[in-house]
UniProtKB/TrEMBL annotation:
Pfam family, one: 2OG-FeII_Oxy_3
Keyword Iron: yes
Boundaries of every Prolyl 4-hydroxylase alpha subunit domain copy: 70-298
Coiled-coil blocks: none
Cofactors demanded by this protein: L-ascorbate
Region span, Disordered: 223-246
Keywords from the UniProt entry: Dioxygenase, Iron, Metal-binding, Oxidoreductase
SMART domains: P4Hc (SM00702)
Signal peptide (UniProt feature, chain positions): none
Protein name: Prolyl 4-hydroxylase alpha subunit domain-containing protein
Length: 306
């Protein structure tokens, strides 16, 4: 009996401090800096030694911060008209049905979750198309500060027609030992003039002090009092100032060709927890079509040392 008591005390001494730190902190401790896991580098936008640096025109985009936690930025004119036309031209013959994955490796088609067409854009071999893709990649990296241990995934365009959609989901999925899909861009390449529906919805993203100018980019209440989107429904139910100086939950971004939304997927504490506010969906297109561009960044999660 005495030996069991001694063993129990020894175990308590060994695990007391880790358990105390865990519960006193109220959650998991941050990941330590761990080596990069094995990945399929063919899925990343990595230049070959002989590729050189593309000749990229100066950017002319402007940014508007919607949220700081999580960081969500609306970007005007991320793509030029010429870039959008070129992306459409090179995507046309490459479109194929979109797929989903449940384990990060195998993919399958499920139109109840994701119904669209996707084109993996070429970035090598020379020519205006490859150079344009690489210039867009460099622009996306520069906007994020050329962070260490961060790579772009290969760029993909997405085409949606009537009734097509992408159900609510997280881009971040899960982290693997401190690595994952750390950020996302949703860029609009093209949209029909008579497009109905097809907005990008963030039902849990809180917007504060939303000015009337935002109604150019997000769905707002119409002049006859009808509401559009989760945020405006909340306003209709709970009230709110007519000038937009209020706080609302949820919003729907309109497909605006050339513009984009950028957001970070993980909390900056290194625990691997994603932001619940980044739950989003591509709402069904009711009429017309839209074409989007996904820019995903994969790399090391932020880890703020205490």
């Amino acid at each position: 009996m005495f030996s069991y008591v001694v063993a129990g005390v020894a175990l308590l001494l060994v695990f007391y401090n880790p358990l105390l730190e865990y519960f006193s902190a109220g959650g998991p401790r941050p990941h330590a800096y761990l080596p990069r896991p094995a990945i399929n580098e063919s899925l990343l936008a990595i230049d070959a030694p002989h590729d050189g640096v593309p000749d990229c025109a100066p950017h002319s985009y402007s940014i508007h911060i919607l949220s700081k936690a999580p960081l969500v930025i609306y970007i005007e004119n991320l793509l030029s008209t010429a870039e959008r036309e070129l992306l459409l031209n090179i995507s046309g013959p490459l479109f194929e049905p979109s797929t989903i994955t449940n384990n990060g490796a195998e993919t399958h088609h499920d139109a109840t979750i994701r119904d669209s067409e996707v084109a993996l854009l070429p970035r090598s071999g020379g020519g205006a198309g490859a150079d344009t893709v690489r210039c867009i990649e460099r622009r996306a990296l520069a906007l994020q500060g050329w962070r260490d241990d961060l790579w772009l995934e290969r760029l993909r365009t997405q085409r949606y027609g009537p009734s097509q959609h992408y159900a609510h989901h997280f881009d971040w999925g899960s982290s693997a030992l401190g690595w994952g899909r750390v950020s996302s861009f949703m860029v609009w390449v093209d949209a029909a003039r008579d497009l109905e529906g097809g907005g990008t919805e963030f039902p849990f993203l809180r917007r504060r002090g939303l000015k009337k100018e935002w109604c150019s980019w997000v769905e707002c209440a119409t002049t006859d009092g009808e509401s559009k989107g989760k945020g405006e429904q909340a306003k209709a139910q709970g009230g709110g100032a007519d000038n937009g100086e209020d706080e609302e939950m949820g919003l729907v971004f309109k497909p605006a060709p050339g513009n984009a939304v950028f957001w970070e997927n993980f909390r900056p504490d290194g625990t691997g927890r994603g932001w619940e506010e980044t739950w989003h969906a591509g709402l069904p297109v009711r009429k017309g079509f839209k074409v989007g561009l996904n820019i995903w960044s994969w790399g090391r999660l932020d880890y703020q040392m205490a």
